[in-house]
Automatic annotation (TrEMBL):
Residues 80-105 have a biased composition (Basic and acidic residues). It comes from Takifugu flavidus. The lineage of its organism: Eukaryota, Metazoa, Chordata, Craniata, Vertebrata. Residues 80-119 are annotated as: Disordered. Keywords: Activator, DNA-binding, Nucleus, Transcription, Transcription regulation, Wnt signaling pathway. GO terms for biological process: canonical Wnt signaling pathway. This is Lymphoid enhancer-binding factor 1. Its main location: nucleus.
DNA sequence: TAGCCTTTGAAGTCT
DNA sequence: AGACTTCAAAGGCTA
């Protein structure tokens, strides 16, 4: 749909990736993971949902949009998959040496999520 | 005030 | 190889 590789998009993506604070003891620029299809859908739709839904908070909005996502026809989902793929490729072009493992385990959490029943 | 919580998906680590 | 974990977004809530 939109212009595939607009220079402004590239600048914005780079700028956004630099907004996140640097990790202490790490190089100054924190390069974020590129968003997946649902994350793009989530960001686009969050501002479009009704204000009364926004008033419910991000958690409720996210859960609601998760339901919306599952209801989306694959023809509509496809554009988000294409967009995420595009952004992944652009991200790789702009950060050739970056890998998702650069960020892996960097967040300090109080409790780690466990999908299988925690012992 | 940093992290949780909520969602899907990509990609990492572990068994 | 398959199971499990982390992080992308956002913002009210929590410790």
């Amino acid at each position: 749909m939109g212009p595939p590789q607009h220079p402004l998009v590239a600048s914005m993506l780079l700028l956004c990736s630099q907004k996140k604070e640097a990790i202490p003891g790490e190089p100054n620029v924190y390069v974020k993971k590129p968003p997946n299809a649902f994350m793009i859908f989530l960001k686009e739709q969050r501002r479009l949902v009704a204000p009364e839904l926004k008033a419910s908070g991000s958690k409720a909005t996210t859960a609601y949009l998760g339901t919306m996502w599952k209801s989306l026809p694959s023809s509509e989902k496809e554009k988000y998959y294409k967009e995420s793929e595009k952004q992944r490729l652009l991200h790789k072009e702009q950060n050739p040496d970056w890998s998702p493992k650069d960020n892996y385990g960097k967040k300090i959490r109080r409790t780690r999520k466990r999908k299988r029943g925690e012992s």
